[in-house]
Design goal:
The complex is a heterodimer of chains A (611) and B (232). Chain A is 51% helix and 20% strand. With 611 residues, chain A is of the alpha+beta class. In chain A, the strands form 4 sheets. Chain A has a 6-stranded mixed sheet, with helices on both faces. In chain A, strands 7-6-11-9-8 form a 5-stranded antiparallel sheet. In chain A, strands 13-15-16-18-17 form a 5-stranded mixed sheet, covered by helices on one side. In chain A, helix 1 packs across helix 5, helix 1 packs antiparallel against helix 8 and helix 12 packs antiparallel against helix 13. Chain B has 2 helices and 16 strands. Chain B has one domain: Cupredoxins -  blue copper proteins (Immunoglobulin-like). Chain B is globular and about 50 Å long. Chain B is mainly β and 232 residues long. The chains are: A alpha+beta (611), B mainly beta (232). At the A-B interface, helix 2 and helix 3 of A face strand 10 of B.
């Protein structure tokens, strides 16, 4: 009961202390985690959009580079000088051979697979990649058309399923347009790899709706992405069991021969890996903080409840007579005040108890001395009464003899009373002079029974003696234990009507030996089972037994059961009663075996008997 | 105004040729004069286009360039010559000079007779590299510095476009004519051919933007033949 209370208080205080910390911490963690998740997701999405912009920018740079090369080439006299030749000079084969040679030279320098030259009307004059090409009218294509009107133009060209980044520049000489130059580089894997580095994404070029070049080797291109809208919006797609953030967009600028677009893919798992790491850290942090909060709560709780625990322990110590349990409470708060009051009350109670003990000791001393002082004259009375009754001091008439016998019975009663009181006092002080020896319990019971039988016979009571054979010896003081049994037996005779029956027995029990006395007497109310063993002197009817017998239902000073219990307890045993009013009573003494009982312990013999 | 591309078909050419006696049967014993007048458009006059002289020319050496020569060459806007005579009234044909000065070819337009030599001189403080892709004379003189010259002989008639490989704005046109009967068209569009044998001839007129056009002209035994070319 007490430990539960203590844990309960500690727990309550700890919970109250920790709960706010825990609550705030958990709430903070949840909020931080939520904010991080939202932010990271937003950043990831924004990052891919930004990557798309960077991608477009890079593709624009590629176009600008082509333009720059084109402008440089177009300004080169050895390049444009051919185009200034009058038409009449272009007809011969020499011109075309020269043109082809010049184009080849310049293409090598420009490092562009697409290297096409048109005249001022947009008619293809030559392709560096194809000596046979020529004559085709390109003026209607958007980029060449723009260049023919003097504007730089860049876009895309799809030929045979291959996409080219293309720039077309006008060639002007002395302010006059003499032709156009179309330069193009294929959209190939190295470009995609460069763009992958720029965009930090897997790059897929989509030509005419089909993936043409891709940096992603292991991941399939999600079909949902290919069939989805070309809107540059970031969306989540699944491919090959992985989640991706993806974006599909067209490439800005005119495109001839087919549509060129691109897709960017980022592994969502990788993008959110940082989130997982942060989450992991947060959980660890949270766990540490929770442990710290619990620890702080426990420490605070222990600190607060320690004085209360000390008070509780001190109170418990008082119950077993220890008034010196150190409180060790030095706080100057309410608890300190409570501890001071407790100390004062404890001191007062200790004084009170000491006073009562003193009174009790004085009473015992008085009884001891009084008993002794009574015995001395009673012994004299007994001796002279016997002399008188025997006629040693002169002849005695029959009425005188009877009077002497009555005097003698009264003196015997006084002697018994004085001995009872002495024994009672010794029991209370724990000073009963027991001498333990290994004795046959059966013999002790028999001796008592033998003494009881004549008394019972006078009352016409049957006495049955039932002793189990081969009872073990026990370490007992045969005299005192016999007296205890005798007290029970005398009570049985006293409270059993004439012609009743009494049974005295001994038998083995689980722990040792049981000695019992049962009767068919008036019985005891169960309310009185405890009270009858106390030393309350009940002077119900001081019968002086004129008949020389123990009168039915007569009472003495009522110390018999108290003394019996004191003796049994001094043996480490127990005494118990079962009874029913009007039917009889059963008193049972149990003496434990020496090895199993406390009686074997010499220390136990001198233990205080106060219960 | 942007220069219009040369388009001979778009230009109506009216030839007015007349003689005082209106005689067509005269033998070639006499020589006459052809006076021509070309209606030059602003485009024809501005054929050099927007090419600006290099602002840095001469700054390293303090050399300003051959201003006089430039001015002289700027007064030439075309070449007129008699196309149907292989030889004949021959002028003394020395070595013609095509200078490179101030990062320009001087003169911008040079007419030489077939077989005549042209000296390509570099008067600039920078290297030049003269070349041409034109069928009558394809050449590439390579780079050479100031003060050095290279000389070529032009054996075929026709237009030779001359460029510098280093300086893309440098340009010259060498009109190789079959004989000495040629004249430059001046700023007013006028030209005069003297000593032309009487009789019918092919008169070719070459303008930088319009190219070459040929027309018939009859030179009288006495007096002048007047030719007028207009752009409608």
């Amino acid at each position: 009961m007490m430990p539960r209370f203590r844990i309960s208080l500690v727990f309550k205080v700890a919970a109250l202390t920790s709960a706010p910390i825990l609550g705030v911490m958990v709430a903070a963690l949840l909020v931080v985690n939520h904010r991080l998740t939202v932010d990271v997701n937003r950043n990831v999405t924004a990052g891919l959009s930004a990557a798309a912009l960077a991608f477009e920018h890079q593709m624009g740079r590629e176009g600008e580079n082509l333009e720059r090369i084109g402008v440089v080439v177009a300004r080169d006299p050895k390049f444009f000088a051919l185009l200034t030749l009058p038409k009449s000079d272009r007809k011969n084969a020499d011109f075309h051979a020269t043109l082809a040679g010049v184009l080849q030279d310049f293409r090598e320098d420009a490092e562009t697979p697409i290297f096409d030259v048109t005249d001022a009307d947009g008619i293809l004059l030559a392709r560096a990649s194809d000596p046979k090409a020529g004559g085709e009218d390109l003026s209607r294509t958007e980029m060449v058309g723009a260049a023919l009107s003097g504007k730089l133009s860049r876009g895309y060209l799809v030929e045979n399923g291959v996409a080219y980044r293309v720039a077309v520049v006008p060639i002007t000489v002395g302010g006059a347009l003499v032709g156009t130059l179309r330069l193009g580089r294929s959209v190939d894997t190295p470009l995609a790899e460069r763009l992958k580095a720029t965009a930090r994404s897997e790059v897929v070029f989509i030509v005419n709706g089909k993936p043409a070049i891709a940096t992603s080797r292991d991941a399939e291109i999600p079909t949902t992405l290919l069939s989805g809208p070309v809107d540059g919006h970031v969306r989540q797609v699944q491919a090959g069991g992985h989640r991706y953030l993806a974006l599909r967009a067209g490439l800005s600028g005119p495109s001839s021969g087919g549509a060129v677009g691109f897709a960017l893919l980022r592994s969502l798992d990788e993008e959110t890996a940082v989130l997982a790491r942060i989450g992991h850290d947060l959980y660890i942090t949270g766990a540490i903080v929770i442990l710290l909060a619990l620890l702080v709560g426990a420490l605070v709780s222990a600190g607060i409840t320690r004085p209360i625990r000390r008070l509780v322990e001190a109170a418990n110590a008082m119950r077993v007579g220890n008034f010196d349990f150190p409180l060790q409470i030095r706080s100057r708060d309410e608890l300190g005040n409570l501890a001071s009051r407790f100390e004062e009350m404890r001191a007062a109670q200790r004084l009170e108890i000491q006073r009562l003990e003193e009174i009790d000791r004085m009473k015992s001393n008085f009884i001891t001395i009084a008993s002794h002082e009574i015995l001395t004259p009673v012994t004299t009375i007994c001796a002279y009464t016997d002399l008188l009754a025997d006629g040693a001091l002169g002849s005695v008439s029959e009425p005188q003899r009877e009077a002497f016998a009555a005097i003698r019975r009264g003196a015997d009663g006084l002697t018994r009373l004085a001995k009872d009181l002495t024994n009672m006092t010794l029991i209370e002080r724990g000073e009963l002079p027991l001498r333990f020896e290994s004795r046959d319990v059966a013999r002790v019971v028999e001796e008592v029974a033998v003494q009881v039988i004549p008394l019972a016979a006078k009352r016409h009571q049957d006495v049955a003696i039932l002793i189990e054979p081969e009872l073990n010896h026990a370490r007992i003081d045969a005299g005192y234990l016999g007296q205890a049994i005798m007290n029970l037996a005398l009570n049985a005779v006293r409270f059993t009507p004439d012609d009743g029956s009494i049974e005295i027995g001994a038998r083995r029990s689980v722990n040792g030996v049981e000695i019992y006395v049962s009767d068919t007497g008036i019985g005891i109310s169960s309310d009185d089972f405890e009270r009858i063993f106390t030393k309350i002197v009940e002077l119900k009817d001081v019968n002086s037994h004129s008949s020389g017998t123990i009168g039915f239902n007569s009472s003495g000073f009522g110390l018999g059961l108290s003394i019996a219990r004191g003796i049994v307890q001094a043996h480490g045993g127990t005494i118990r009663v079962e009874s029913e009013l009007g039917r009889g009573s059963l008193f049972t003494i149990e003496i434990p075996h020496p090895q199993a009982g406390a009686a074997s312990d010499p220390e136990a013999e001198s233990l205080p008997l106060a219960s | 105004m942007t220069p219009e591309p040369a388009d001979l078909d778009g230009v109506g050419i009216r030839v007015l040729a007349w003689s005082a006696a209106a005689l067509l049967l005269a033998p070639v014993a006499w020589a006459g004069v052809v006076d021509g007048k070309v209606a030059l458009t602003p485009a024809d006059l501005g054929f050099r286009g927007g090419v600006k002289p290099n602002a840095y020319v001469g700054q390293l050496s303090g050399h300003v360039g051959h201003t006089g020569s430039v001015v002289a060459s700027d007064s030439v806007f075309g070449v007129a010559y008699i196309a149907d005579l292989q030889s004949g009234v021959a002028r003394p044909s020395g070595v013609a000079l095509l200078d490179q000065s101030g990062q320009r070819f001087v003169p911008r337009i040079l007419a030489v007779v077939v077989g005549q030599q042209v000296e390509f001189r570099n008067s600039d403080n920078v290297f030049h590299n003269v070349f041409s892709y034109s069928p009558p004379k394809r050449f590439d003189l390579g780079r050479y510095p100031r003060g050095k010259s290279k000389t070529l002989t032009f054996q075929k008639s026709g237009l030779v476009q001359v460029f510098c490989d280093i300086h893309s704005n440098m340009r010259a046109d060498v009109v190789v004519v079959p004989n000495g009967l040629f004249a430059y068209v001046n700023r007013e569009g006028a030209f005069r051919l003297e000593g032309v044998p009487a009789g019918p001839h092919k008169l070719s007129i070459w303008l930088p933007l319009r190219g070459e056009q040929t027309l018939d002209v009859t030179v009288p035994e006495h007096g002048n033949a007047a030719v007028s070319i207009t752009a409608e």
